[in-house]
Design brief:
Length: 241
């Protein structure tokens, strides 16, 4: 009987990152197939320019996810800052349930708040302004109406621009704001938060209104290493992939 629940984020799959793609496919076939559920908390892809994009390795990833879903493992996904255009068509083809930017799940009576993590980085004002614009239906419709080739070229330019923008920002700006974390956890009445985005895997303990709270940060997947957070029998553990 499948009982454990797996959490991953920030794989940033792309055509160039063949090692990460292969590791993910092996993970789906062997480890994830033993789990009750798999939660992907954003940035599964390094860039997503529309559900009509079947350039490699997208089609292979969709097929592998659908096989996992058909085997009985439930798959849930939250959009990240790199794949926020990932939509219902992809999820239907891959057998995935798409969650809101904040989602609360029940872990044996304990509420856990899930999110990608970019909304928690509230000190990065330029990014938050772009995010607000990029999540509007008008902006997304305008982008998705462009020819696929043009969107592919635009995605490459966006990744390059993002790289240079990050080099000009301090580590403090790109990390979460603790008060924002507390406010969000209060709003959703959760003492446990799981997210990715920052690429700073860790377990943070703190207090909210006199009660202990925990923030678990997922690791990003790299060429030679990857991690998955596993919840089983009331406990969390980190597994190497």
């Amino acid at each position: 009987m499948k009982t454990d629940i797996l959490f991953i984020s920030d794989l940033h799959i792309s055509l160039e990152k063949t090692e990460i793609t292969q590791r993910f496919l092996n993970f789906l076939q062997h480890r994830a197939s033993q789990a009750q559920a798999l939660y992907i908390l954003g940035d599964l892809f390094d860039a997503w320019i529309g559900d009509d994009d079947n350039t490699p390795p997208n089609k292979t990833i969709k097929k592998a996810l659908k096989q996992l879903s058909d085997s009985g493992t439930a798959i849930y996904l939250i959009q990240g800052n790199r794949d926020f255009l990932l939509g219902s068509t992809f999820c239907q083809q891959a057998g995935i349930s798409l969650l809101d930017e904040y989602a609360v799940i029940d872990l044996n009576g304990q509420n856990a708040l899930l999110t990608h993590g970019d909304l928690l980085c509230s000190d990065d004002l330029p990014y938050q302004a772009f995010r607000l614009k990029a999540h509007s239906p008008e902006w997304q419709q305008n982008v998705l109406s462009k020819p696929l080739l043009l969107r592919l070229l635009a995605a490459r330019w966006y990744r390059l621009r993002s790289y240079f923008h990050k080099r000009g920002k301090t580590q403090y700006i790109m990390d979460v704001n603790q008060q924002t974390v507390i406010d969000v956890m209060r709003q959703h009445q959760c003492q446990l938060l799981i997210h990715g985005h920052t690429h700073r895997p860790n377990r943070h303990q703190f207090m909210i209104d006199g009660q202990p709270a925990t923030r678990l940060v997922l690791a990003d997947w790299k060429k030679h290493s990857a991690e998955v957070l596993c919840w089983d029998d009331g406990e969390f553990r980190v597994e190497a992939v």
